[in-house]
Amino acid sequence: MTADHPDDAARLWRQAQALNRRAAAVSPAAGDLPPLLFFTDGPRTPRPWETASRLPAGAAVVFRAFGAEDAIKTGRRLRTATAGRGVRLLVGADADLAQALDADGVHLPERMAGRAADLRRARPDWLITAAIHAISGPLPLDSLDALVASPVFATASASARPVLGLEGLARATALGRPTYALGGIDAETAARLADSGVCGLAAVGAVQSAFARPIRI
């Protein structure tokens, strides 16, 4: 990250890195994870490859195609935007699409988390994360690299899930796997996560907005 980054992008990235360093001091495995995840979200991120091309090395994109007809085309643009730049690409819910795109891993919805063990056996090289919302029921934690807890704060998403807040987030981090905070995350709310134990930040709109302008290196 250089001084030429927009201020909000630099701030968000620094916050994500600081959280990752703190988490890695407790759980070294967290240090191998991207500090910042950019989640794509259909109409809210119509040209996600543009944002992806501006992310700093070490970040990652979670491509959620939601069954879109142009999933392959968009995914290839995201792979082109991330390949060779130290930005990892995960595909949401669709291991076949991840394979086709030569992605770096998958992100599983909570309802699909049980597939993590099979995916780990098939692709031990993949980064595998899973969503967690209600913090109830068993999860294949040994097969997951990280959890993504959401929504941590109130969010613009259409999801009607109850907000976890810091108390709910603490229940997620207590499961013992590196955990990201998603939902209502921006540079202001991220400041409230300093002592939460999360390994990084995940966001849709905040990342897209922060990295809206080309970055001059």
In words, what does this structure look like?
The chain is 32% helix and 16% strand. By secondary structure, the protein is an alpha/beta fold. The protein has an 8-stranded parallel beta barrel, surrounded by 5 helices. The relative contact order is 0.19.
List the helices and strands and how they pair.
Blueprint: H1 7-26, E1 36-39, H2 48-52, E2 60-63, H3 71-82, E3 88-92, H4 95-101, E4 105-108, H5 116-122, E5 127-132, E6 146-149, H6 165-173, E7 179-182, H7 187-190, E8 200-203, H8 205-210
Parallel strand pairs: 1-2, 1-8, 2-3, 3-4, 4-5, 5-6, 6-7, 7-8
| Share in helix | 25-40%
End-to-end Cα distance: 9 Å
Structural class: alpha/beta
- Strand segment tally: 8
Q: What is the chain-wise order of helices and strands?
A: HEHEHEHEHEEHEHEH
Strand content: 15-25%
